[in-house]
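Could you join me in thinking about how sequence relates to backbone shape in a protein? Label the sequence line and the structure token line clearly, so we can match residues to local backbone shapes. Once you have written the record down, we can walk along the chain together.
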Amino acid sequence: MSRTKPHEIVERALELSTADGCVVIADEQSTANLRWAGNALTTNGVTRGRTLTVIATVDGKEGTASGVVSRSAVTAEDLEPLVRAAEAAARGAGPAEDAQPPVTGTPASPDFTEAPAETSSAVFADFAPALGEAFARARAGGRELYGFANHELVSTYVGTSTGLRLRHDQPNGTLELNAKSPDRQRSAWAGRSTRDFKDVDPTVLDAELAVRLGWAERKIDLPAGRYETLLPPTAVADLLIYQMWSAAARDAVEGRTVFSKPGGGTRLGEKLSRLPLTLRSDPNAPGLESAPFVIAHSSGDDASVFDNGLPVPATEWIRDGELARLTTTRHSAAMTGMPVAPGFGNLILDGGGDRSLEEMVASTERGLLLTCLWYIREVDPATLLLTGLTRDGVYLVENGRVVGEVNNFRFNESPVDLLSRATEAGRTEKTLPREWSDWFTRAAMPALRIPDFNMSSVSKGV
């Protein structure tokens, strides 16, 4: 079965189906990775895998039911039992609330019958020598580098009983580099998102980290409180990704989220920021390309298995500071009277600014410069109040210069509220969301200046 082409598996599963409707999703995944510690490579490897998802739908007097079964390492003998299991799940389920007519009319992918794309250790051909150079520079500079580089390529094949034949190849690369002083008392982190490792240079990141370790030679204790704070693009991405995960239209209409209007309705059309911020998603954004059609392995607040194959258009979620769209499936769009706005595969914030983070630091009289956030958790869905910690370097800026490293903090903030208080947005650039990098990596954000970021307590974290 491992030698069977993915499109042949999809076709065979559709042939075996006896349900009223069927969607088959074959995900072919390959990964290559490098890991290092103490200025030396420790491990590397390449993996391959396949997951098959069968979604069966059964029509009944009360409505259409769905059954979803996913399995990995499916053999030829497993294929029919997998299809039957999905059909049995559908027949045993009640009518699906999100049931919609099958998607039709999406043009077939011209490469549907071609072999899946695969990554290999060759993706690191230029990166690995540069990493070796970074090790040498770090060793000579008295610092130690730790981290990993991971590249994943997933070819997804979607076939339906209504004739859709779609395929999308999604490359996804992450680089995380951590520099430490030999006594482990100072630590700095940098990360990058990439499609092919041709646009990331570990020597550049090492140079950045060397500067930060130098800043950290002077320690300054600060109490909890509200500080003017520069949020770097990675922190902005982590906060706004969580905001978008909480932007389902149905939840807002039902009065359960920060986007619900007191007394009923939603906040669509409301001004969320004084800055001309535009938050958008675009499957064709250069360097951040994502699937141009819905790929839904399960149903939820912002996804429906009945929408598989539905085209995903470019969407502005916030336009010039005004809330313009909430995420909808076809079902929730019909319920709420809103346009269909499928979930997002990338996220871009355009703020209209052109200054780099370094230039924003240079114009800061007194404030904090963060590196990144982590352990972000929701406190109150009604306001989208989040809590979390700073990590790997918080620095004090005075008169346009970084003068030392301060202690870490726990913060309490709502990203929606932060947008309303932001006084400056820098230049938008590709970034790696550190907290959510296992789930979401395709983001481009500016740094934001917040005049009164709430550092609610001092943290002992590093």
Residues 218-462 form one domain. The chain has a mean pLDDT of 96. Residues 85 and 269 are 45 Å apart (CA to CA).
